[in-house]
Amino acid sequence: NAGVMQNPRHLVRRRGQEARLRCSPMKGHSHVYWYRQLPEEGLKFMVYLQKENIIDESGMPKERFSAEFPKEGPSILRIQQVVRGDSAAYFCASSPVGQGASSSGANVLTFGAGSRLTVL
Amino acid sequence: GENVEQHPSTLSVQEGDSAVIKCTYSDSASNYFPWYKQELGKRPQLIIDIRSNVGEKKDQRIAVTLNKTAKHFSLHITETQPEDSAVYFCAARFVGAQKLVFGQGTRLTINP
């Protein structure tokens, strides 16, 4: 099992460009979470998706940010018209069931290695 | 609201001593509390977790305690070693919101 795969690992964009970050969850995991980590700060929840559905996007800015998890292929976090404040590490995590499920052990979150976005 | 407070933000201990990190959470319905370790430039990795039906869990030098009444939980690392140096994050699962909310992190430094 290759674990949670994220790419690119590092991405440099100029202000106004678009950034696309990809996440392939662990095999058998259908629940994907995106977190943002600013330098020297904690992990801030952005969005929770299941296949073809956005379950909770309460942590995602209303403008410029969007996320999807299509039936086929990886989950994608898209940031349009990037600004310097978007520079951060973006971590994807997956679990076999949602965090609302009470089954013990089945909803442990496994993180990917992160995508580090730098906006010049 | 959904909130997890973590203290201290930085902690420095001598090698061989114990380290304790504390977290409080806002939602009494929370039922799962993991701890993640993040080394510089790496992914957060789960080191131990506890569910609300137990008060304490131990795994070698690492233990976690949970006080549901007070809504706080703690990470205890005994006989600390240099490789324990990292940032540690606590988290609580907010069931109604179906997500993990993380504390702000504690930078632990083990001094040789």
Provide structural commentary.
The complex is a heterodimer of chains A (120) and B (112). With 120 residues, chain A is an all-beta fold. Chain A has no helices and eleven strands. In chain A, strands 2, 4, 5, 6, 9, 10 and 11 form a seven-stranded mixed sheet that branches. In chain A, strands 1-3-8-7 form a four-stranded antiparallel sheet, with no helix packed on it. In chain A, strand 5 (43-50) and strand 6 (53-56) form a beta hairpin. The radius of gyration of chain A is 14 Å and the shape is globular. The N and C termini of chain A lie far apart (36 Å). In chain A, 37% of the residues are buried. The model of chain B has no long low-confidence stretch (mean pLDDT 93). With 112 residues, chain B is mainly beta. Chain B is built from no helices and eleven strands. In chain B, 36% of the residues are buried. Chain B has strands at 4-7, 10-14, 19-25, 32-38, 45-51, 56-59, 62-67, 72-77, 86-94, 99-102, 106-111. In chain B, strand 9 (86-94) and strand 10 (99-102) form a beta hairpin. In chain B, strands 2, 4, 5, 9, 10 and 11 form a six-stranded mixed sheet that branches. Classes of the chains: A mainly beta (120), B mainly beta (112). Chain A binds chain B through residues 33, 35, 41-45, 48, 55-56, 58, 91, 98-100, 102, 104, 107-114, and chain B through 6, 31-32, 34, 36, 42-46, 49, 51, 89, 93-105.
Structure keywords:
heterodimer, A: mainly beta, 7-stranded mixed sheet, 4-stranded antiparallel sheet, globular, B: mainly beta, 6-stranded mixed sheet, 5-stranded antiparallel sheet
List the helices and strands and how they pair.
The complex is a heterodimer of chains A (120) and B (112).
Chain A (H helix, E strand, L loop, with lengths): L4 E3 L2 E4 L5 E6 L6 E7 L5 E8 L2 E4 L8 E4 L6 E5 L8 E8 L14 E2 L3 E5 L1
Parallel strand pairs in A: 2-11
Antiparallel strand pairs in A: 1-3, 3-8, 4-5, 4-9, 5-6, 7-8, 9-10, 9-11
Chain B lengths: L3 E4 L2 E5 L4 E7 L6 E7 L6 E7 L4 E4 L2 E6 L4 E6 L8 E9 L4 E4 L3 E6 L1
Parallel strand pairs in B: 2-11
Antiparallel strand pairs in B: 1-3, 3-8, 4-5, 4-9, 6-7, 7-8, 9-10, 9-11
